[in-house]
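hey so u asked for the seq, here:
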Amino acid sequence: MTKKVLVLFAHPAQSDSEVNMPLFSALSSIERVTTVDLYAEYPRFRIDVEKEQQRLLAHDIIVFQFPMYWYSSPAMIKEWQDLVLEYGFAYGKAGDQLKNKSVLIMTSAGAQQDAYQTEGLNQYPLRELLRPFEQMAHLCQMHYLPPFVLFGSRTAHEELRIDGHIKQAKTLIQAIQKGKLDHTSLGHYALSNDYFQESEAQR
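ran it, structure tokens below
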């Protein structure tokens, strides 16, 4: 059975988006994928906790999609986490409502990948900067899938890389939906991008 996917999208400057808005639109076209624009739905950050919890319960795979802002997510994602992932619901005593669901981060980074290295400009691999999401998944007994990232997003449009990225993103989501990829088969990759690079190298 095809699993249900919930995409929680957060971009506070959508009029400037060359990557995330087209990707969000493309994900919306996939069968059994529910897309939610959090900034549009909660412009005053007044999150409907019960509504969001019910969304989580109704889906198998939770995708957080956002551009990297100062080495993390936009503020809306943090607000959503703080309010929705309550003790007794997502974690803690009897808080196992999200157990065995999967979490995937889809993000874009302005700099190229070599900037996200120990000796690079940003000092840390991007996977390390996203560790709070990985620990969130662990605490909530969820399966954390390697992040899927578009590096060099500032020049992706000029370099005609966006369509290829979107195609891979859709392929990734559909493979996870159908059970062809999961936390076990993807677990040894630092990023889900590495799966595609390995597959292309083997052709």
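The chain has a mean pLDDT of 94. The two ends are 29 Å apart (CA to CA).
lmk if thats what u needed
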